[in-house]
């Protein structure tokens, strides 16, 4: 007891000191970001507002990216559609800055993250309001998908980022026992990202944070559907970088259309793409010209499986959140619902009751549960999918209700809709919907649910619900997808230590987590002498040039001594290795003495 007592006291003292240090807040400077031109000043009325009426037939690329609020059609302004030469100049500037930033300390990089985190926490309403105005989502949805996910990523990087970028030592194997093996992680250079519109804040910050913390520069092309918000969020990054003395031009945000994105792919050292499978394939083709690594996070059509032993009211709440969040702008797109036949009627009845209470309207004009559809004419596509299902035998059993939309809104809203009697012959169950539609099928056994869930060209995520957690885990383990949530939906992405990505038409590669952070790095394998300079590598005499007559015999015995399955055979082989070496050394000495 006399020996352990001092150690116990020291341990307690250390724990107390660590706790007291945690109570001392770090010194984090504040930054000022000019938001005067993006804030609503209350003077915008129907009479002096500029209502933007986009052309039917989709966005036509021009030299300008026009921006407007999808929920009100209020005009927000425009940004330049950058030419390929302009893109190359941005990348060149970033490359020069990265050469300086690559030498920055982790302490400096962590301070950059803390400054961002402080600003985000203190300006949540501003960030969410800008996201809401540009994409049509509600403030609550913006908080969940923009603020929380980004704060989680920052805090994870602060806690563990340096750990996973330091050299990692590996086993050196049997033949290299005298060596030390390690993996080192170096910045790739300039990380390019082409991101989607559904989370304009997080989709900019997500690749930027990983790239900058790992010593890279970042050049990000924002969606033409969310350029207004993306360019404001860029100001936050610029101010935070300046506050830590980072070089100018380390991070860039680009606006434009297809040719802008193509030029970016051709200029950077790695590309991260978030978007559709069709565009993802074009990204791969372009990246093949320069053979740069690619991470593709493409479409999702997640299966939502509900077993008969669940807490139905809870699962109904999760289901509607997963399907309707931000008019379909959800974490991984719960788009196929499979409910056990024994609780189908109860589940549908409770879901329909809840859906009918959902109000749809301009998210900043009142208390609405769901906002607008961001992309022009997407509501028309949603209706076509519903019509196809109805023609093939499906039934609508419940729809949400509209609030006051305003006479100037052009097809930017779609009511949450529940359908039953659906099957996999319907486009609704095969194509990515990205909208507030809940199609429900029944299943009778776990095997049937697994088969239905795997019957898709997508493989991003899934959610499985059961009162028996082992059962839910077993079902999820047999689903061909990249992420799985047990008795929850979207929780995998809020665990930023986990990699995120899918398989099949949902893409490949991962961002987030250790895998996503290291994917921004040149991974270098290094082997060095373990006990240098006391023990140095020497080539055994039998296999030195010119190779001795017994060179192969030596090599054969060495292989068996190292890797043989039988201990006695290995010992015998080792004796033979030593015998050959002693004979070879004796022969060498004799030859030297003869000379």
From TrEMBL:
The catalytic residues are 297
Residues forming the Aldehyde dehydrogenase domain are 63-526
CDD domains (alphabetical): ALDH_F15-22 (cd07098)
Q: Which GO terms describe its molecular function?
A: oxidoreductase activity, acting on the aldehyde or oxo group of donors, NAD or NADP as acceptor
Q: Which InterPro entries match?
A: Ald_DH/histidinol_DH, Ald_DH_C, Ald_DH_CS_GLU, Ald_DH_N, Aldehyde_DH_dom
Annotated coiled-coil segments of the chain? none
Q: Where is the signal peptide?
A: none
Alphabetic keyword roster: Oxidoreductase
Superkingdom of the source species: Eukaryota
The family note in this entry says: Belongs to the aldehyde dehydrogenase family.
Task: Give the protein's recorded name.
Answer: Aldehyde dehydrogenase 22A1
Protein species of origin: Elaeis guineensis var. tenera (Oil palm)
């Amino acid at each position: 007891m006399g020996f352990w007592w001092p150690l116990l006291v020291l341990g307690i003292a250390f724990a107390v000191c660590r706790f007291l240090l945690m109570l001392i807040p770090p010194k984090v400077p504040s930054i000022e970001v000019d938001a005067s031109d993006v804030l609503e000043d209350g003077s915008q009325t129907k009479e002096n507002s500029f209502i933007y009426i986009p052309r039917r037939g989709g966005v036509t690329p021009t030299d300008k990216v026009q921006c407007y609020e999808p929920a009100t059609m209020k005009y927000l302004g425009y940004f330049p559609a950058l030419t390929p030469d302009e893109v190359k100049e941005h990348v060149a500037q970033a490359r020069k800055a990265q050469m300086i930033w690559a030498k920055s300390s982790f302490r400096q990089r962590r301070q950059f993250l803390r400054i961002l985190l402080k600003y985000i926490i203190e300006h949540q309403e501003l960030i969410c309001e800008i996201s809401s105005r540009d994409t049509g989502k509600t403030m609550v949805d913006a908080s969940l998908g923009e603020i929380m996910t980004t704060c989680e990523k920052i805090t994870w990087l602060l806690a563990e980022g340096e750990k996973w970028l330091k050299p990692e030592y590996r086993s050196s194997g049997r033949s290299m026992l005298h060596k030390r093996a390690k993996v080192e992680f170096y910045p790739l250079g300039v990380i390019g990202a082409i991101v989607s519109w559904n989370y304009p804040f997080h989709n900019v910050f997500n690749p930027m944070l990983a790239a900058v913390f790992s010593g890279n520069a970042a050049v990000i092309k924002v969606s033409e559907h969310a350029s207004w918000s993306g360019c404001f969020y860029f100001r936050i990054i610029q101010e935070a970088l300046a506050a830590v003395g980072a070089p100018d031009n380390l991070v860039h945000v680009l606006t434009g259309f297809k040719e802008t994105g193509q030029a970016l792919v051709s200029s950077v050292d790695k590309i991260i793409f978030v978007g559709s499978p069709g565009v993802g394939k074009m990204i791969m083709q372009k990246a093949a010209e320069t053979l740069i690594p690619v991470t593709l996070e493409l479409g999702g059509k997640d299966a939502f499986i509900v077993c008969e032993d669940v807490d139905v009211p809870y699962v109904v709440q999760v289901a509607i959140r997963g399907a309707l969040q931000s008019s379909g702008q959800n974490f991984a797109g719960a788009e196929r619902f499979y409910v056990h036949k024994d609780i189908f009627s109860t589940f549908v009845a409770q879901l329909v009751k809840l859906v009918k209470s959902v109000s749809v309207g301009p998210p900043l004009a009142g208390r609405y549960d769901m906002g607008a559809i961001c992309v022009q004419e997407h509501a028309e596509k949603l209706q076509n999918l519903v019509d196809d299902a109805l023609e093939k035998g499906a039934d609508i059993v419940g729809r949400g209700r509209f609030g006051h939309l305003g006479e100037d809104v052009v097809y930017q809203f779609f009511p949450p809709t529940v359908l039953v009697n659906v099957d996999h012959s319907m486009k609704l169950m095969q194509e990515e919907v990205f909208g507030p539609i809940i199609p429900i099928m029944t299943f009778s056994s776990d095997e049937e649910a697994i088969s239905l869930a795997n019957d898709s060209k997508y493989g991003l995520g899934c959610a499985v619900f059961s009162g028996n957690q082992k059962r839910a885990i077993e079902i999820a383990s047999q689903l061909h997808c990249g992420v799985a949530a047990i008795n929850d939906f979207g929780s995998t992405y809020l665990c930023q230590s986990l990699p995120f990505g899918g398989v099949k038409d949902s893409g490949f590669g991962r961002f987030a987590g250790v895998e996503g952070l290291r994917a921004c790095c040149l991974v270098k394998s290094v082997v060095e002498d373990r006990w240098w300079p006391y023990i140095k590598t020497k080539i055994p005499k039998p296999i030195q040039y010119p190779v001795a007559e017994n060179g192969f015999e030596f090599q054969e015995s060495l292989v068996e001594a190292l890797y043989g399955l039988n201990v006695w055979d290995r010992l015998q082989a080792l004796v033979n290795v030593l015998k050959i070496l002693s004979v070879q050394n004796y022969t060498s000495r004799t030859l030297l003495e003869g000379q």
